[in-house]
Amino acid sequence: MLERYAELNTAEFGRMYDLIPFLEGSTAESYEHQRQMLLEKLAGLVQWGHRGTKADVSAMSEGCRLCGEGVWSCLFINGKCNCDCFYCPASQNEECLPTTNAVSFSSPAEYTAYLKEFGFRGASISGGEPLLTPERTLSYIKAVKDEFKDKIYMWMYTNGSLVTKDILQMLKEAGLDEIRFDIGATDYDLSKLKSAVGIIPFVTVEIPAVPEELDNMKTVMHELAKIGVNHLNLHQLRLTPYNFPNLIERDYHYIHNESVTVAESELTALELMLYGKQNSINLPVNYCSFPYKNRYQGYASRKRSIEQMIKNFETITKNGYIRRITVAAPDIQGSLTAPSEKNGDSSISIHQDDISEISHNADIIISYFSARQIHSVSYRNPFKIIHLTDSKDVVIERFRVSKDIRTNASDFANGILPDECRRFEVFSEGLLDYI
């Protein structure tokens, strides 16, 4: 698996890859020890969810809970930002239409139709900075809340620099349920944040856990609780080609795994969570780790699309992929009772419920597929067009994610799968490995 991660990360970073100081050797062992000590101290104080990738799930905001259920849509309302955070993972200087999952919308009506079609119960407005286009932002919030009322919980992300009392009042009147401030963008200034408390029903601080700000954040946590902030969400810093020049100057060590993340950022988040508990600070802290985002948000997006593209003889794995089982026709000894499909090479794709009808010693071929929403038909893969409004369609494209994997039918029936099937079948457990 490490070889696969190295291949993916090398492809992302190119020549920069060799300059990344990955966590290894005695440093990795020391960091793993620190993490284990923090996790042991947190045991019994916080509740971990999503197979050990997210805590404290006992006291999350409604938006975070809906994210965990896979029923949240994040709309990037624009592509511009007026701040210059060193940790920002992508450029924020483009004019663009409101977009989610590579699907853009030219009107609020198109977006509300999208939310209805796919059964979302939560929606957020992000950017860029949403308040750089206040009229657009307000029109989308109002349209969603007018259409769905309390059936959709809605929140907005902001750096806070453009927040005013008037803007907050308009956001409230539009129906916004929660506002989330990245106070790291304004050097941890809390003045704009304070003005939101008492106007917007729920006020949250959502920031990356920056190692250099550990001591400062301990002080800030007391102040946030005093102000009446409802939640503190901490993210794990991630290295990208865009923020590489900024992060590589800092004395960080990087985890070589699903993506390239900052080890010290995770330790900082865990330490702040522990500090809040040990000091009885009335401020729920939620650590949103990179593996949580990568695994569970990816799962939700896949599952939403593959439900539109799966065939009746295929099944959805626990990790949200389409599984197809194919067998040579002569190896079928019994009668197939579930749906199936004959292929041109005399093989048959069967439902897993009919695996007992296959010869005990026969091999089967397992193939995995995924699906995604795209803005227009590519004609490279099977697709389906979903009509939203007279002016808007969404295209869902199905595509292969694995080679054909050969295994024994009896092994499959007994739950024994080749290693190359595992990442398509089940979620990985826990936080990213340091060692």
Give a description of the structure:
There is one protein chain. With 435 residues, the protein is an alpha/beta fold. It is 32% helix and 23% strand. It is globular and about 75 Å long. Helix 8 packs across helix 10 (263-278). The chain has helices spanning 2-13, 25-42, 62-69, 108-118, 134-148, 165-174, 191-196, 214-227, 244-247, 263-278, 290-306, 409-413, 422-425; strands spanning 48-49, 54-55, 72-76, 79-80, 93-94, 99-100, 103-104, 122-126, 153-158, 178-181, 202-208, 231-235, 254-256, 260-262, 285-288, 315-316, 322-328, 340-342, 347-350, 363-374, 383-389, 392-400, 405-408. Residues 66-282 form the Radical SAM core domain. InterPro entries: Aldolase_TIM (IPR013785), MJ0021-like (IPR040087), rSAM (IPR007197), rSAM_sf (IPR058240). Keywords: Iron, Iron-sulfur, Metal-binding, S-adenosyl-L-methionine.
Q: Summary?
A:
This protein is 32% helix and 23% strand.
Please identify which CATH superfamily of the largest domain we are dealing with.
Aldolase class I
CATH architecture of the largest domain: Alpha-Beta Barrel
Average pLDDT reading = 96
Whole-number radius of gyration? 24 Å
- Let me know the largest β-sheet: 9 strands, mixed
Strand content: 15-25%
The proportion of residues forming helix, as a percent range, comes to: 25-40%
| Number of structural units classed as domains | 2
Shape: globular
Structural class: alpha/beta
CATH topology of the largest domain: TIM Barrel
Terminal residue distance: 13 Å
Domain Radical SAM core: 66-282
Keywords: Iron, Iron-sulfur, Metal-binding, S-adenosyl-L-methionine
GO molecular function: catalytic activity; iron-sulfur cluster binding; metal ion binding
Pfam families: Radical_SAM (PF04055)
